């Protein structure tokens, strides 16, 4: 039986690719975007299987209104994909207050508010699936991406906790961790902080030169169509995988980061145990 999906950020990137593939499979999509007219080319063939609304995910009141409207008009929504987001690049000192607040609002607060808006509906209908498009940047960290990483590490923690809260209601959660893919993430959708001369010769300056074409671009091995297909396949599975790491670069980066952290933790075992209270140490 065809399912109904609610997806944020569908005008480009993974959101657009997911919408195209799902409609081709005969499923129904509630597509939200700042510019829903970007899906005009899909509307003629999709008919009433494509439900579109304009949405700025940082507007919490509007987000709740759109979510409530989607459930009211479409009935059951089987899968919610939290996909809207963007990259902010620059040293922490280079970022403006407005850039900081917008990055947190879009990549961290908005997905949390989306969860708070959809969960009551999913509980009442007896379950469903939530897919959070995050990033391998929630497992690793690079210079000149501090605020971006803060949002991705933050949303990983939120969903790892919330997944356990929601499991008794039949709501499965999957955090998708793609590597660098051939989308507009590192191009048109990227935001760069205004440069400070002091950082010109460091990682922030190097990244800026890559975006300007003065240095080779960042490798982008990920195929958006294959990533979208893998996300859909994960929802086809009976059990929701908590994490879905996609891309050879994502796998290599996450593996190296986790091994490094585990090695550091194991080397500090004696120190960790030494800080227990004396009665605990005596009993061990």
TrEMBL record:
Alphabetically ordered keywords of this record: Oxidoreductase
Classification via Gene3D superfamilies: NAD(P)-binding Rossmann-like Domain (3.40.50.720)
Transmembrane segments: none
InterPro entries: NAD(P)-bd_dom_sf (IPR036291), SDR_fam (IPR002347), SDR_oxidoreductase (IPR051911)
Domain of life of the source: Bacteria
Gene Ontology molecular function: oxidoreductase activity
Keyword Oxidoreductase: yes
Family: Belongs to the short-chain dehydrogenases/reductases (SDR) family.
Name listed for the protein in its UniProt record: Short-subunit dehydrogenase
Originating organism: Motilibacter peucedani
Origin organism lineage: Bacteria, Bacillati, Actinomycetota, Actinomycetes, Motilibacterales
């Amino acid at each position: 039986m065809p399912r109904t999906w609610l997806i944020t950020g569908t005008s480009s990137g993974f959101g657009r690719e997911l919408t195209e593939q799902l409609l081709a499979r005969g499923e129904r999509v509630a597509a939200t975007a700042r510019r829903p007219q970007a899906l005009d080319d899909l509307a003629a063939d999709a008919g009433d299987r494509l439900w579109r609304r304009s949405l700025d995910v940082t507007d919490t009141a509007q987000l709740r209104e759109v979510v409530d409207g989607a459930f009211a008009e479409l009935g059951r929504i089987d899968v919610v994909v939290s996909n809207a987001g963007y990259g902010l690049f620059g040293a922490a000192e280079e970022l403006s207050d407005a850039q900081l607040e917008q990055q947190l609002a879009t990549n961290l607060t908005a997905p949390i508010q989306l969860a708070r808006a959809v969960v009551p509906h999913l509980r009442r209908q007896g379950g469903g699936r939530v897919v959070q498009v995050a990033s391998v940047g929630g497992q690793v960290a690079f210079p000149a991406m501090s605020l971006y990483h803060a949002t991705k590490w933050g949303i990983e923690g939120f969903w790892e906790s919330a997944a356990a809260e929601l499991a008794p209601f039949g709501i499965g959660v999957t955090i998708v961790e793609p590597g660098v893919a051939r989308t507009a993430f590192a191009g048109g959708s990227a935001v760069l902080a205004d440069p400070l001369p002091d950082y010109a010769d460091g990682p922030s300056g190097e990244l800026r030169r890559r975006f300007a074409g003065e240095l080779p671009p960042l490798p982008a091995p990920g195929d958006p169509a294959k990533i979208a297909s893998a996300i859909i396949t994960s929802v086809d599975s009976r059990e929701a995988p908590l994490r879905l790491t996609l891309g050879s670069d994502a796998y290599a980066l996450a593996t190296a980061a986790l091994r490094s952290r585990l090695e550091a933790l194991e080397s500090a075992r004696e120190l960790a145990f030494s800080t227990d209270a004396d009665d605990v140490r005596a009993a061990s």
